[in-house]
Design brief:
Layout lengths: L17 H21 L8 H12 L4 H12 L8 E8 L5 E8 L2 H14 L3 E2 L9 E10 L4 H10 L2 E6 L3 E7 L3 H10 L7 E8 L3 E3 L2 H16 L3 E6 L1 E3 L1
Parallel strand pairs: 8-10
Antiparallel strand pairs: 1-2, 1-3, 2-9, 4-6, 4-7, 5-6
């Protein structure tokens, strides 16, 4: 199978700078904590925790950091609680934006997210206004050093939806429920390096923007949202021309 990645312009924030990496690790630790606290702290019996751990590994989060977050959840009191909230809206040029948050103060988070949209040319919408435009999918990127036909057959045989050949990367798209199975099969086949490894949201359709000024405004809004402590992930359907 060939073609262009559905999400090639989306969600490439991890690990480019040490400071950014530290921020990402803090957010992942919160996500691991919530998943471990809301279910079993054992990833073998907690699918949500297992997926977050895979996401953390994909971001090269140290194993000790992952374990600390799980241990913190084991000793957490009921007073330590985070609410999962999703905000939806539009950025410049009508680009759809979805913002997933974990917060211990809903009023603070709502105010900060609304302010970010308003100050950078966006509009915060109502629940459901853009989420229908996205699908939850597993994304696995591996270097194209491995045999293309072998990687494709392994991926498809274990439930992958698509296998896309990019410049020097194989991108594998799965249903969320097949993500772990496909990744495990690739590991058993000898794949050791995963450039991306997570369950995320990809857009059904993209909005193509060619005006560089508008593209910059969209990036500025997304960056501002990602800087907020309560924001875990930001998704959009921008396609740069």
């Amino acid at each position: 199978m060939s073609g262009h990645s559905k999400w090639a312009t989306i969600h490439r924030k991890k690990g480019e700078l040490d400071a950014a990496r530290g921020k990402v690790f803090q957010k992942l630790a919160k996500e691991i904590y919530v998943a471990a606290k809301s279910g079993s702290p054992d990833p073998d019996s907690n699918a949500s925790l297992r997926m977050v751990i895979e996401k953390a590994r994909g971001a090269n989060m140290p194993k000790d950091n992952i374990e600390k977050a799980i241990q913190k959840a084991k000793g957490a009191t009921e007073s330590e609680h985070y609410d999962a909230i999703r905000y939806e809206g539009y950025g410049p040029s009508g680009v759809a934006i979805m913002v997933d948050c974990l917060t211990d103060n809903k009023n603070r988070t709502a105010s900060e997210v609304r302010s970010s949209f308003t100050k950078r040319g966006g509009n915060l919408g109502t629940s459901g206004s853009v989420s229908y435009m996205f699908e939850r999918r597993g994304i696995i990127d591996i270097p194209s050093d491995y045999d293309e036909e072998e990687m494709m057959m392994i991926s498809l045989d274990h439930g992958a939806l698509d296998f896309v050949v990019l410049d020097d990367v194989y991108e594998i798209v799965t249903l969320a429920e097949n993500f772990i199975k496909v990744k495990k099969a690739l590991e058993e086949a000898g794949v050791q390096e995963f450039l991306t490894s997570e369950v995320t949201f990809i857009p059904n359709n993209t909005v193509e923007v060619s005006d560089l000024e508008q593209v910059e405004k969209i990036h500025s809004l997304i960056s501002q949202l990602e800087e907020l402590d309560d924001v875990q992930d930001v998704y959009c359907n921008l396609k740069e021309n």
